[in-house]
Design brief:
It contains 14 helices and three strands. It is mainly alpha-helical. It folds into two domains: about 100 residues, Tyrosine recombinase, N-terminal domain (DNA polymerase, domain 1, Orthogonal Bundle), CATH 1.10.150; about 180 residues, Intergrase catalytic core (hpI Integrase, Chain A, Orthogonal Bundle), CATH 1.10.443.10.
């Protein structure tokens, strides 16, 4: 019996790899017939899937039984090993196609890749704003006017928390807890996160709620924290125009995007030595490779500092 058990133990890893390989080959045959893909593309799919298959076999799993946490652990390992977002995106794309195929074949009833975010690639991030540029942008609104005070508060909150613009404009008073100094955000995929508020952001928010917000609303009622003059929720496009106008006023020449302050939040935290996983949690990324794109700016800054201290390399 002991011999049988040891033979089983020896054979379990190759069997999970062999099982994965057989499934991967069936998948490649199917998509080659369906789509007539090139040998290079098929080779890349095979390499991605077999790397995953070998990684899973160490846990005595075959590829068809992978769950979301297996895939996230695999991707995080690759990212920490220096994989670029483009390579991570290609692997995730291979995995998506494969799991959709085995669902069609009735081999499983859920897709573990369904709510894993694809890292943003292709267009690089806008060059991050410097801390001085952020300061100029924050001071651009005229805070003597209720709408200017609202805009300053929104900009302060964006830079202090790294919220997505959609999360900012949908923010309701019930999501803000001044006693604990946090806001509660339900982001993509219904993932909830608590974000700490700094003193400066809290001060602007309290001042806004106590006065200018009531002036903007007059007798109207809304749960949204940052209403328009009509008492409605602000649209993404309206906020984008506001940011562009203030950037122009502040003399910021860099190409801006609605997420410029989110990018600046992430980059400045990393510049000051924040842990990548902490920034991932604050930004609400489901997968570390999406956060990884911010580290190139921090790396460049470290290189510059190194060059200043060690001019001869």
């Amino acid at each position: 019996m002991d011999n049988m058990a040891s033979m089983d133990k020896q054979n379990s890893e190759p069997r999970s790899v062999a099982n994965s390989e057989e499934l991967v080959d069936k998948f490649l045959d199917a998509i080659w017939i369906e789509r007539g893909l090139s040998q290079n593309t098929l080779g890349a799919y095979r390499a991605d899937l077999m790397t995953l298959g070998r990684s899973l076999s160490e846990q005595k799993k075959s590829i068809d039984s992978a769950d979301k946490s297996d895939l996230l652990a695999f991707i995080a390992g690759r990212v920490e090993g220096g994989a670029k977002p483009r390579s991570t995106a290609r692997q995730l794309s291979s995995f998506r196609r494969f799991f959709r195929y085995i669902m069609r074949e009735g081999l499983r009833n859920s897709d573990p890749t369904a709510d894993i975010e694809m890292p943003r690639i292709g267009r690089s991030l806008p060059k991050s704003l410097s801390e001085d540029e952020v300061e100029s942008l924050l001071h651009a609104p005229n805070t003597d006017e209720p709408l200017g005070h609202r805009d300053r508060t929104m900009l302060e909150l964006l830079y202090a928390t790294g919220l997505r613009v959609s999360e900012l404009i949908n923010l309701k008073q019930s999501q803000v807890n001044f006693n604990q100094g946090v806001i509660r955000i339900v982001g993509k995929g219904d993932r909830e996160r608590l974000i700490p508020l700094g003193e400066e952001a809290q001060r602007w928010m309290r001042d806004f709620i106590d006065g200018p917000r009531m002036e903007i609303l007059l007798e109207r009622q809304t749960d949204y924290l940052f209403p328009t003059r009509r008492g409605d929720r602000m649209t993404r496009q309206a906020f984008w125009h506001i940011i562009k106008r203030y950037a122009q006023k502040a003399g910021v020449r860099k190409k801006m995007s609605p997420h410029s302050l989110r990018h600046a939040f992430a980059t400045h935290l990393l510049n000051r030595g924040a842990d990548l996983r902490v920034v991932q949690l604050l930004l609400g990324h489901s997968d570390l490779s999406t956060t990884q794109i911010y580290t190139h700016v921090a790396r460049e800054r470290l290189k510059d500092l190194h060059a200043q201290h060690h001019p001869r390399g």
